[in-house]
Design brief:
The chain has about 60 residues and is an all-alpha fold. It is built from two helices and no strands.
Length: about 60
């Protein structure tokens, strides 16, 4: 019997997740949590989207 190669997570559209702990300013956490509620999603989705948007901009264009 021949088996087909399995797709990687990236090929199947699934991203690997990493669990971590971070410290946020209370007002940032509250704003992100409120945005999640308004968007009817979870905090992880809001923070992931925000981080992805931040990482799309090259460092030189961020004014650093």
């Amino acid at each position: 019997m021949t088996t087909l190669p399995r797709k990687t997570r990236k090929e199947s559209g699934m991203a690997a997740r990493v669990k971590t702990t971070i410290e946020l300013d209370a007002e940032v956490w509250e704003a992100a949590k409120m945005r999640a509620v308004l968007d009817r999603t979870d905090l992880r989705t809001v923070l992931t989207a925000a981080l992805r948007a931040y990482l799309k901009v090259p460092p030189r264009e961020r004014g650093r």
